[in-house]
Amino acid sequence: MIVRLRSLLMQWTAVVPVVGVVLLAFTWGRDLPGAIVALLTLVLAGAVLAAVHHAEVIAHRVGEPFGSLVLAIAVTIIEVALIVTLMADGGPKTSTLARDTVFAAVMITCNGIVGLCLLVASLRHGLAVFNAEGTGAALATVATLATLSLVFPTFTTSKPGPEFSTAQLTFAALASLVLYGLFVTTQTVRHRDYFLPITRLGEVIDVDEHADAPSARAAGISLGLLALALVGVVGLAKGVSPTIESGVEAAGMPQSVVGVIIALLVLLPETIAAVRSARRDRVQTSLNLALGSAMASIGLTIPAVALASVWLSGPLVLGLSSTHMVLLALTVVVSSLTVVPGRATPLQGGVHLVVFAAYLELAVTP
Length: 366
What we know:
- By secondary structure, the chain is mainly α.
- It is built from 13 helices and two strands; from the N terminus they run αααααβαααααααβα.
C-alpha cells in the first residue's frame, strides 16, 4: 500500500493535468461556491508545476531553442482561444480584452520575467551572460509587433477611436504572421546558434551535459500531458476569475486588473521554467522563453482576433492609452540597453522589475 502511494505521488505530474481537465469539464460556466474555488486554485497551482515539468522534458529531448518555442507557442495558442471565446461571449464590454491581454503579456514577459531572471542569474553566478545577437533580434521583433498592433491604432484616422479600419487590421494581422514566421525560421533554422546558451567565454552550449535525453515515447507523453496541463491552467484560471472579479470590485480597483491577474496565472509556467534556467546559468534559454512568449502573444493573438472580428458584433479596440505607450517606450529603451552588452548585473534586473512594478501600480491606480 505504501509502495503504491509512493508511486502515485511520484506520478503526480501525470495525474494533476488529467484531474484539472476533469474539474474543468464539471465546473465550466457555472457559479461556484468558495470551497470549490479553493480546490480549483490548488489544482491550478499543481497544473502550473506539471506544465513546467513536461515542458522541461520536451526541451531536453528536442534541445534549444526548440524547447522554449514549444512552451511559448503552446501557452499562447490556448491563451488566444480563451480570448476569442471570452470576446464572443462578452459583447461590447470585451472590446479592449485583446489589447489589455497582449499588453499585459508584453509587460510581464519583457520586464517581469526578464528582470527576475537577470536578477537571479547575476546574484547566483556573478553575471548574467547571454547572446546579444539572438536576444537583440527577438527584442526588435517584439518592439515592431507591439508598435504596429498596439500603438498605431491610437493615431490612425480611418475610424473614430483607437481602432483599425478593416484594411489596416488585415495588414497588421498579416504583418504579425510574417514577422513571427521569419523569427521562428531564424531561431530554429538559419541562425539557431544565436539562440543557444553561451559560456562566460562566449562559447555556444549546444548540449545538456547533465543527463541523457528522454526517449521519443517519454517526450511524446510529456507533450500530451503538457497540452492537458495548459488547458487546465487557462480554463481553471477562467473558472476562478469571477471570484477574482468580485475581489477586485470590492477593493475598488479597475476591471482591467482582472486581465492582469489572469495573464499572470497563464504565464506562470513560463516564469517558473525561465527562472529555473536562470538558476542553471542558462540565461539565453530564459530570454528565449520571455521574449518568445511576448512575440507569440502578439503574433498569434492579433491575427486571431482579426479573423474573429468578422463575426464579433462589438468594436475591437487595440490602441494603447498615452500612459501605456510611455511604459512600452520605456520598456523598449531599457531592454535595448540591457541587450547590447550581452551581459547583465543585478542592476539591470532591478531596473526591469521596477518598470514592471510601475506597470502594476498604474494598473491598480490609473
